[in-house]
Amino acid sequence: NKIEQAVTTFRSDLQKLGYSKIDIRLGQIRYNKDNTQAEIRIFGSLGDKIRYELKQPGAGIFNQGEISKEEVEGADPDIVSPEAMQQEIERKYRSSGYAEVKVPAPQITNVNTKERVYTFYVNAGPRYKISDLRFDGVTVFTQAGVKDIVDPSLFSNSDIYNLEQLEEGIENLLNKYKEMGYWDIKIKSPRVAFSSSRETVQIIVNVDE
User: By C-alpha distance, which of 26, 21, 30 is closest to 42?
Assistant: First the structure.
């Protein structure tokens, strides 16, 4: 109902302000004698206010300084914990070519008894680009056809290495095979070889039609 929706919105607004551990619930609803007005009581506690900061020498995925979950493109909108934010920061770096990124547990600073700052010191590592992407065992399609089904941008030498994007492309290829009646199709996990210069990757995907 509208009252419960209002409480949910209120909780979400407070979480955006940094009260990630807020615990509120709808309590009593008291109506006046002619039921034209009501008094609504909400119970619970705000918990500690949390802020996030990011230190990331040389990477540039985010701006230095304070960040919010809205700045983590594609992040889960239900992120409320430092652990979840840590995972989303790492995911964002990996999807931007930083395959070896390390995001250690954050440093915690207590601003006061009710507010704390979580600072993530990110070691991004090198940014990889794709030098070669090949699908072995494909006979139903040409290599050009595979590229169109998977994702043409993945086959560009200038494209960054994004395992998440590649896995989505492989799923597209798998679904295309099944649409054509190849129900026993098997596509193995990609084999990724990193160059000694730590600049590019070569990827081979084996397909068993």
Answer: 26
Distances (CA, A) of 156 to 67, 100, 109, 182: 32, 21, 44, 28
SS3 28: strand
209's tokens: 């039609």
Distance CA 12, CA 208 (A): 47
The partner residues of 120 in beta bridges, in order of sequence, read: 54
pLDDT value at position 157? 47
Q: Which residues contact 1 (CB under 8 A, 6 or more apart)?
A: none
Question: Which residues neighbour 55 within 8 Å (Cβ) at sequence distance 6 or greater?
Answer: 64, 119, 120, 121, 122
Element at 119 (helix H, strand E): strand 115-121
pLDDT digit string (tens) for 157-201? 458 888 888 888 899 999 999 999 999 999 998 999 999 998 899
CB 83 within 8 A of CB 90: no
How confident is the model at residue 74, as a pLDDT? 47
pLDDT band at 24 (very low <50, low <70, confident <90, very high): confident
> Cα-Cα-Cα-Cα dihedral of 32, 33, 34, 38, to 10°?
10
Kind and range of the H or E element at 43?
strand 38-45
